[in-house]
Amino acid sequence: MTSFSGKVQEEANQPVGSNRSTAMEKVSFVRNVSQVFFNRAGYFQSRYKTFGKDVYGSNRWVVLCLGLLNVVLLIAAVSLGINCAKVKESSINVTHSSATQPTSEYLHDNHSDVIEAGEKLKKTLETAIKNHTLLKEQIEQKKSINDENQRQVETLRTEKTNLQANISALEGTCGKCLPGWNILNSSCYFFSYLESSAVKKNWADSRADCVRRGADLVVIDTPEEQKYVSDSIQNMKTSNRLWENGFWIGITDVHSEGTWTWINNVTGLNPRYWMDGEPNNHGQKEDCGVIVYSSISPWKTMYDGPCHNPIYWVCKMESR
């Protein structure tokens, strides 16, 4: 189908007075009124009737005006499109710039915050290291103090044990005997070995030591006392030779050979207390009595020895 503008163009291109005028349908006269109609062939045509005359306008000018109008509209549309594109691009750039600037500022601020947080963490770490070092030094000091306290505790425990032993000894003697003395019935006994195993004396010096302590060399009055003294010195030995492990007792025959007298002037000694073959006054020089421990018989524990020999001794005193 041919468009309306095409028909107008074709109509405008045909010469005036051609066969198309014969095919046109006449209309009545109307003054100053423009009529537009289609002819029988379907073409657009207009004419003016002025003062009873038909004046046919040239369609060529109309088409030209329409074309110019189309061109103007096209130019206007293109310009408008270009302007819209520019405005859109400008808007995008502005938006991008607006979006980029806060992002850059945010990143800058965030980077500063990270650096500041890092510095704070570094300072915190340094403080923690210093505190750890200080705490370690304090732990070492406390460990040294604790070790010293442990040594003191051990010393105190040892002292406590000794005190308890002394208390037991005091309880055993009921306070009737001096420290270091043992009690039997109503008498107190001092064994020099217990004070010092390295000190030995002759008979005369041993007796002098007992007197200095307020006592004298032991005088054995009963079998019970004989057994007690003998059993007490069982573990007080410094030599494998029996004669070197004896203790001086308070009996002698220095004044009269063969007459054994106790220092309390009591004469006589039960013969069963002498070891077999004793006293024998070997070499005519054995005038002082000695007691030892015997595993064979608790009664046969005495012999006579040279008074100048250095050995241990036993003191005896009445309890308080």
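The record above closes out task 2.4. Task 2.5 opens with a second protein, given below.
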Amino acid sequence: MSNDNNQSTTNNNVKEATYTPPKVWTQDKESGGKFSSINRPTAGARHEKELPVGEAPLQLYSLNTPNGVKVNILLEELAELGIEGAEYDAYKIDISEGDQFGSGFVGINPNSKIPALVDHSADTAGEPIALFESGAILMYLAEKFGQFIPVAAGKARADCLSWLMWQMGSAPFLGGGFGHFYAYAPEPMEYPINRYAMETKRQLDVLDKHLKDSAYMCGNDEADYNIADIIIWAWYGQLVLGKLYEAAEFLQVDDYKNVQRWAKQIAERPAVKRAVDLSLKPMA
């Protein structure tokens, strides 16, 4: 009888600790974690702040996170080729301080995420072109300057765009999923860490199998290096090189030999070396 009572008490305690979602969700407390002080369920500007504008035709507003590094790399690769008109000024948007909610930044990116870019050389009727979402920025710049993207319709372009969209769809599981619960959540939680670690490793296996017979994401020649490599390397290349979340051992990234080879090869490119440590100008 005593054992039955103890078991009953244990089961009751488990039920009491289980979260039951309410019928209607409300933000009645901070969510905890690294960015809890700035997270809200609403969009729009929270304070007035104009964006600085430099002399270069392209103005980048970003941070050297994996998402930001994507655009850094392409801009530096264009600079490496000496492409006229691809000069840029880069300004720091400190997301931990809420710079992304300034009125000027929200004006060019209503989603309040980095990176964002404004092309002043495309000014028509006093209206420069503003872009947000890293994939859109990479496609725009690559097509504008005719570099690092297959232009003609066909297999090469289809492969490039497919892998580009693969990264855009997959990275939230790595960054917002695995990265958040492994590195930024207020306390470690087994289920979400296991769930997103499994998916991250599956994605690494997708890449490893693909790169077994391919030097780059879309071919074996230097000319095949393109924005698909750039956008994927910023997340998965840096991950297997031990640059993200201090999670290399946990995820056993050394097992992915083909991804390792590809990541190291791209990391040695002069433009990539400059891009990961790009000096960003202060907003003020």
